[in-house]
Write a structure and sequence with these properties.
Blueprint (H helix, E strand, L loop, with lengths): L2 H12 L5 E5 L5 H17 L3 E5 L16 E3 L7 E7 L14 E11 L10 E4 L6 H11 L6 H14 L10 H11 L5 H10 L3 H11 L3 E2 L5 E6 L1 H7 L10 H5 L6 E7 L5 E7 L5 H6 L4 E2 L3 E6 L3 H22 L1
Parallel strand pairs: 1-2, 1-4, 2-3, 4-5, 5-6, 8-9
Antiparallel strand pairs: 7-8, 9-10, 10-12, 11-12
Helix pairs in contact: 1-3, 2-4, 3-4, 4-5, 4-6, 7-8
Length: 329
């Protein structure tokens, strides 16, 4: 991407006064939520009406972000929109039902950083080498000489912290530290972000972790670990459905594990799968086989249940990928 790409997207967002609908991907995470809120704050700054929507609720851990309470559920949207901005959506399906709120002549803007993003928008700003979508937005704002307020900086920093795992993952670069330093200069407390995004757990989440870890399985080769979460477990714990993601780090952190997975049963019977790899396996390729996507080391997909069948289908491909990767070493 070059400066012209950034400026064209910035102009698309800021140089009209029609209402803009902003959506981040279903089962939203820190990068998606931070990016959506930062763009809503940009629209506020330039006087453009904006609505934030998602099929799923925003996890409680992000309630500290300015504007987090502005999100509405897709089902509550009555109107169609002439312009929709999708942030952090690896493909158009990740927008959920919001895509059906685009008017017949409307335009779709796509800002993202996933390797599997095919450029599904009418206008696209996609950098698969960026550590986070919030980094893509930061570059756009800087190149447009747009002011970055304290609240915008907090949202962008939150997305970067989430997608780099608190600057621990292999997508942590010198640039990302420089960007983080610039954002921090706006005056918010970084420990608050780290605490809320990476560490703090509610009692309900702890109960879900307890129930989920009881399902932990390690494949016979010692290279694959996975946990599974049912709707019954979610109801028993009192946690929100999306909060099951707190279990995922336990799988990949086990010694010797190359691929960690979380299988989560959704209310409609589908199964959401989150995949993480340590060094060798391209989990985005596995997710693509099930119409999902993501990054080489972090990806996701959704497939029909029941849960045991979904687990068996995904593990078949994961085992083959791990065996092939180990054979190359």
């Amino acid at each position: 991407m070059d400066r012209d790409d950034d400026l064209r997207m910035y102009e698309q967002i800021t140089e009209t006064r029609d209402s803009l609908l902003i959506v981040c991907h279903i089962s939203p995470d820190g990068d998606a939520i931070g990016a959506a809120l930062a763009m809503a704050l940009l629209c506020d700054q330039v006087g453009r009406p904006v609505i934030l929507a998602n099929d799923d609720p925003i996890p409680k851990r992000y309630a500290f972000l300015p504007g987090a309470d502005r999100f509405v559920r897709t089902a509550d949207l009555a109107d169609e929109f002439d312009q929709i901005l999708a942030v952090d959506c690896a493909d158009i399906r990740r927008m959920g039902e919001v895509i059906h709120r685009k008017s017949q002549t409307g335009t779709l803007l796509n800002i993202d950083h996933h390797e599997t993003n095919c450029g599904f928008g009418d206008a696209n700003l996609v950098d698969p080498h960026a550590s986070a979508t919030c980094l893509v937005l930061y570059r756009m704002l800087r190149r447009a000489d747009a002011p970055i307020s304290r609240d915008m900086a907090l949202c962008l920093y939150t997305g970067i912290v989430f997608d780099t795992g608190g600057f621990r993952y292999n997508n942590t670069t010198p640039e990302i530290h420089q960007v983080a330093a610039d954002l921090l200069s706006r005056g918010f407390q970084p420990f608050m972000v780290a605490d809320r995004v990476l560490e703090a757990l509610t009692r309900e989440q702890v109960e879900l972790v307890r129930l989920g870890l009881a399902t932990l399985e390690v494949d016979e080769n010692g290279r694959i670990a996975y946990v599974s979460v049912t709707q019954e477990m979610i109801a028993k714990s009192g946690a929100d459905e999306g909060e099951a993601e707190v279990l995922l780090p336990y799988t990949r952190s086990l010694s010797g594990i190359e691929v960690g997975l979380l299988f989560r049963e959704r209310a409609n019977g589908d199964v959401k799968v989150s995949l993480r790899s340590r060094d060798l396996v391209d989990v985005a390729a596995i997710a693509l086989a099930f119409a999902g996507g993501g990054h080489v080391r972090a990806a996701g997909c959704q497939l029909p249940g029941p849960l045991p069948d979904a687990i068996a289908r995904v593990l078949k491909l994961v085992r083959a990928a791990v065996a092939e990767a180990d054979a190359r070493v």
